[in-house]
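Appendix B. Raw example, untouched.
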Amino acid sequence: MKNATEILKYAMNMERKAQEFYNFYKDKVSSKKIKELFEGLASMEEEHYSILERQLDSLEKNNSFTEINLNEADGESIIQNKTKDLEHVDFEYDLSDLPILRMAYAMENDFATFYEKALEQTEDEQAKYLLSTLAKWEREHRDSFEEEVKNAMQSTWFSQSFYPF
């Protein structure tokens, strides 16, 4: 179970760093909608951290994962709701937010990849369930940012009469 412990510790560190990222940049972005999205994501990353922490405690005390029900996916609906809100953001006025959105995309992509690779290294059913759920959530975050980065870039291109395709 040493490998599982290391996976959980690394994942907890990632989730904490993501929370710090969103808390820091929520006050740096120009767009109110992106600020709200980052506030929601910071809270979500804290939830992810807590889930991982409970599993690590169980693993260290009982040498096994605890059975969990992660239908807490309701909390993940915030990403879809906030992403829908982002459709109304005028990125012409929020171009300074683009690098921050790109960093958020890269971070979420790294997290999804980590959870997918960690999933391949475990045989415990509860661990697989946990890691696959976290991978799914991180892919949803990543995909939302990918779409927003694409929209922001295209908006900028068009406003500058630049058509790269």
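End of appendix B.
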